[in-house]
Amino acid sequence: xxxxxxxxxxxxxxxxxxxxxxxxxxxxxxxxxxxxxxxxxxxxxxxxxxxxxxxxxxxxxxxxxxxxxxxxxxxxxxxxxxxxxxxxxxxxxxxxxxxxxxxxxxxxxxxxxxxxxxxxxxxxxxxxxxxxxxxxxxxxxxxxxxxxxxxxxxxxxxxxxxxxxxxxxxxxxxxxxxxxxxxxxxxxxxxxxxxxxxxxxxxxxxxxxxxxxxxxxxxxxxxxxxxxxxxxxxxxxxxxxxxxxxxxxxxxxxxxxxxxxxxxxxxxxxxxxxxxxxxxxxxxxxxxxxxxxxxxxxxxxxxxxxxxxxxxxxxxxxxxxxxxxxxxxxxxxxxxxxxxxxxxxxxxxxxxxxxxxxxxxxxxxxxxxxxxxxxxxxxxxxxxxxxxxxxxxxxxxxxxxxxxxxxxxxxxxxxxxxxxxxxxxxxxxxxxxxxxxxxxxxxxxxxxxxxxxxxxxxxxxxxxxxxxxxxxxxxxxx
Length: 478
Known about the structure:
By secondary structure, the chain is an alpha/beta fold. It has 20 helices and 19 strands.
């Protein structure tokens, strides 16, 4: 049945989920290697994958007889789902508890006491809330940066319909740890001895991998995590490195966030600069490492990251609040894959990858004045920023064979953007408008794995009544 509803609706005014579906009459921004844009494009989806993409007329002619549903997007923009490569879902309930403080105060006095007291239900609710905000900004896949109760995160991700790389917050030494965390050993973090009874709430990383990797129809992957080098022994670093190689998965780690971190590493690890220099020394830098923030690195260390194939998650809002200017232009020139992250709610307050695109462009243009004494409006142009939020994000989470661009054979992770509502009108250049003008209000529908997780700005969780229950629990707790 042909549909004509604005916003990608069915004949009753809403999008639907079908095993075969055509979306047509759309401006399709593919983000593929050729950066193709179809001004009047169509895509044929079979179950969870894109079967074909091209001009609307061609797609309709070839596949309309096979489609269970045909949706006219009425010249709206169809994009790959955005990938948020650094977010702490456990921290959503802590939004606003650590504003306007330095990083070590933020960690030791505000966030770690909060996280260490989280219950399993807290983690579940927190991940649901975070996921709802992510979906509204067009995110279909995220990389958890390290949190509590990963099994509850997985439960929430499965319900929301998103794609995620989940990581447990992992530390085995160092200052500032709450009492319940300080007793954890390296063995507990990696794989505890099954013959010994431990009273720890968190599972080991191997246990979590065995339980949840490829869960939720393959939408969940388990990565291994290092919270930060100041709270990790050399043994934890090395065994995590080797374990990730063995299981063919990724490692997510906060790297070179502040000068103090580099100084601690120089003092304790006896290297001449900081975290990246030491990680290179122990052969921790690998192409499966997602290095978050990575603000305080020098030219030599940028070279080390590039040669190892390390991916970097740039978090503009979080960096501006507590960390500083990351040398993103230099990283990109060194062929480092740089993506975008929001970080957690207490270090940003906004879980919007749309906002991060806007900020990434502006602060990196502004950094040129600070660094070189002259302006460079071409620093981090719009198309580069859009790639950071899509295909670079997919590469950063080691999922680019399936997501990050709209191409035949890839997963049907897509975002419908309405360019006709007030923030984006008029549109003279679609790519620049997506980065400089788009707001979360323009994101109208989101598909992940061939299923609509938001349609016409309504999260499907709400339609199942779960959001009302969530709201009631929050009101009772606060």
